[in-house]
Design the sequence.
């Protein structure tokens, strides 16, 4: 299957003349989703899903894009290209490539749990699966998100009771919208402008999100309010005179040492990636004989599947991990 291989710019599908989520500029890129380590600026042309196009244009306004809807198929030379839902963030896709009867699926980032906002992950049968494994260790087991929602609400209400603001650190693209959907109708949301920009891009493309306001300095105290802000923007927040409690929503919050080092008052375990069980489920669903592990704990994950009879290898890519 050397028709899909790594070169210095990314995962190159030679017969189609495209790179998948390339990390150096290429003429033609196929993009799984618009997180910065997957959709980098500088490519000549981006093929992606319509929702990804909307947020990609918010990040890279001059991007030349072409969209391909889920389930539709496109011929790039002799290669058949299709997108399937990845369940990672709204619009995120797995890429299915078929060439001379061989099928390869590149998952991009994914989770197998249906969060009710991103469309649910679709298992795709293939010969070769290139899977991310950001959380590819048995220690990662996600709690029930509805339970996490109750813990979040409790924290916001307790803070509200003593006049403290609740600031939750979330990635602007994906996690912010997921938290809003999860707590819809149960708190008031204030969001940082960077999140507002992406919300507008998403709602302009038809994604329905709860109402929210931009962060203000005053008026925190009448209704329990959750303030959503990207990690990098929290230091710059100016919120009136009351106290502030900070928290982070991330898969990494499942690790005690990480939670302590992060410096947040609270940590909530909420990830848009598959946990250990989810990653393994995806491998089983695919039925692939060959598994390439990338983007995370790839050595351990590949070894685990080699011991179970797969042709499993590590694929060294430049994805950085969204940290979520
Ligand atoms: Zn991502
Ligand atoms: Zn990623």
Sequence:
């Amino acid at each position: 299957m050397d028709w899909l291989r790594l070169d210095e710019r990314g995962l190159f599908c030679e017969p189609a003349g495209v790179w998948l989520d390339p990390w150096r500029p290429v003429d033609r890129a196929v993009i799984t989703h618009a997180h910065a380590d997957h959709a980098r600026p500088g490519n000549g042309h981006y093929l992606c899903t319509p929702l990804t196009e909307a947020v990609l244009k918010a990040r890279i306004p001059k991007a030349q894009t072409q969209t391909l809807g889920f389930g539709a198929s496109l011929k790039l030379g002799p290669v058949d290209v299709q997108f399937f839902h990845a369940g990672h963030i709204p619009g995120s896709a797995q890429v299915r490539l078929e060439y001379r009867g061989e099928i390869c699926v590149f998952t991009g980032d994914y989770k197998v749990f249906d969060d009710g906002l991103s469309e649910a992950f679709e298992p795709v049968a293939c010969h070769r699966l290139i899977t991310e494994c950001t959380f590819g260790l048995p220690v990662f087991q996600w709690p029930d998100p509805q339970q996490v929602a109750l813990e979040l609400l409790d924290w916001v209400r307790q803070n509200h009771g003593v006049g403290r603001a609740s600031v939750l650190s979330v990635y602007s693209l994906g996690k912010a919208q997921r938290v809003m959907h999860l707590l819809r109708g149960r708190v008031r949301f204030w969001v940082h402008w960077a999140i507002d920009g992406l919300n507008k891009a998403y709602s302009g493309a038809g994604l329905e999100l709860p109402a929210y306001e931009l962060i203000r300095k005053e008026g925190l105290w009448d209704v329990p309010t959750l303030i959503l802000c990207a990690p990098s923007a929290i230091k710059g927040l100016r919120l009136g005179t009351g106290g502030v409690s900070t928290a982070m929503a991330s898969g990494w919050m499942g690790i005690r040492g990480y939670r302590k080092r992060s410096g947040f008052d609270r940590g909530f375990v909420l990830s848009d990636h598959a946990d250990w069980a989810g990653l393994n489920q995806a491998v089983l669903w695919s039925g692939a004989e060959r598994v390439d592990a990338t983007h995370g704990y790839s050595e351990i994950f590949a070894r685990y599947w080699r011991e179970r009879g797969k042709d499993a290898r590590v694929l060294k890519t430049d994805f950085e991990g969204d940290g979520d």
